[in-house]
């Protein structure tokens, strides 16, 4: 009987405040969709870092005769065979180094022609203008500074470059978008909480006669408050369910079909469906608990009978 009464009161409350309930559902759905999207964006950035950082190298560019004339770092002349052997030997002794590949000037010229052979400037480049280099793969890409410190400024070394810098701007942009999404999510969350509190207040005021009678006949505070809390929790759960649908549709539309980024950007390792599905229980749990807690706190102030 009590469960039936609570359920009937939930239905009455939702019908009386249909417009505000709809607003709560929409605001909760948008805020939780942004929250889930921010979590997925952070995971995407982490996945891309793991994927690309495992493939990038630290490049140690060696001085050639042209650098000796134009670059003060190579003022002592082009790199010698002994210096190259010493650099290679020192790299082999470093614990952070996984693999070392030497690229000659001729190999560098061939790679350059393969990539830029159709451009006008390519015809003006000769093999002797290309730099020899050591391409170093690190066991931990974050240890770049160890190699840079050991070889930057060394005789025969023109520069030490970390290829991660090429990707860092992209990761910074994605992290910036993530922060923006979290900011908008926070704003929407505040709006949702305000709507929940206002909805509970209106509902409590419209049923103050019924709650007064229940108090007089000995009903406990928890029993009186339960319908209001359940109304908010139900609206929040619906909002969480809508947010889950938005996340699934967003993943499907952006990556698999629609924009089909997985086909257009095949070099990017996108997150899979498992990453999205594992976030859905958290979104639903927040959608259920957040309005319920907000309603419970609001009732302590507004349900005075």
> Which percent bin holds the helix content?
55-70%
Q: Write the H/E string, N to C.
A: HHEHHEHEHEHHHHHH
What is the helix tally? Answer: 12
Distance between the ends: 23 Å
Q: Measured on Cα atoms, how large is the radius of gyration?
A: 31 Å
Oligomer class: single chain
Note the topology.
Elements: H1 2-16, H2 18-53, E1 58-62, H3 65-70, H4 81-93, E2 97-103, H5 105-116, E3 133-138, H6 144-151, E4 157-162, H7 164-206, H8 208-216, H9 221-256, H10 261-264, H11 273-277, H12 280-302
Antiparallel strand pairs: 1-3, 1-4, 2-3
Helix pairs in contact: 1-9, 2-7, 2-9, 2-12, 7-12, 9-12
What does this protein look like?
- Helices cover 69% and strands 8% of the residues.
- The protein contains 12 helices and 4 strands.
- It starts with a helix and ends with a helix.
- The model has no long low-confidence stretch (mean pLDDT 78).
Concise description?
With 305 residues, this protein is α+β, with helices and mostly antiparallel strands. It is 69% helix and 8% strand. Helix 2 crosses helix 9 (221-256) and helix 2 (18-53) packs antiparallel against helix 12 (280-302).
Features:
elongated, 305 residues, 4 strands, alpha+beta, 12 helices, four-stranded antiparallel β-sheet, 69% helix
């Amino acid at each position: 009987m009590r469960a039936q009464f609570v359920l009937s009161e939930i239905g009455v409350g939702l019908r009386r405040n249909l417009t505000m309930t709809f607003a709560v559902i929409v605001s909760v759905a948008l805020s939780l969709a942004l929250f889930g999207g921010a979590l997925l964006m952070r995971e995407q950035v982490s996945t891309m870092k793991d994927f690309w950082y495992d493939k990038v190298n630290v490049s140690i560019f060696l001085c050639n005769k042209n650098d000796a004339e134009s670059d003060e770092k190579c003022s002592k002349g082009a790199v010698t065979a002994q210096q190259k052997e010493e650099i290679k030997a020192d790299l082999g002794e470093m614990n952070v180094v996984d693999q070392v590949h030497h690229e000659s000037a001729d190999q560098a010229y061939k790679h350059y022609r393969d990539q830029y052979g159709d451009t006008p400037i390519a015809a003006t480049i000769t093999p002797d203008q290309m730099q020899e280099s050591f391409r170093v793969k690190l066991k931990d890409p974050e240890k770049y500074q160890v190699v840079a410190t050991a070889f930057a400024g060394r005789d025969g070394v023109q520069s030490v470059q970390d290829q991660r810098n090429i990707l860092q701007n992209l990761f910074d942009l994605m992290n910036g978008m993530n922060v923006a999404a979290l900011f908008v999510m926070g704003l929407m969350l505040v709006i949702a909480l305000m709507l929940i509190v206002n909805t509970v207040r209106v509902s409590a005021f419209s049923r103050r006669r019924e709650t007064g009678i229940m108090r007089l006949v000995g009903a406990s505070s928890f029993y009186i408050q339960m319908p209001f809390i359940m109304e908010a929790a139900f609206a929040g759960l619906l909002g969480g369910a809508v947010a889950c649908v938005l996340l699934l549709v967003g993943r499907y539309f952006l990556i698999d079909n629609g924009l089909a980024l997985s086909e257009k950007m095949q070099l990017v390792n996108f997150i899979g469906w498992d990453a999205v599905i594992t976030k859905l229980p958290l979104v639903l749990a927040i959608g259920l608990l957040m309005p319920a807690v907000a309603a419970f706190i609001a009732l302590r102030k507004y349900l005075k009978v």
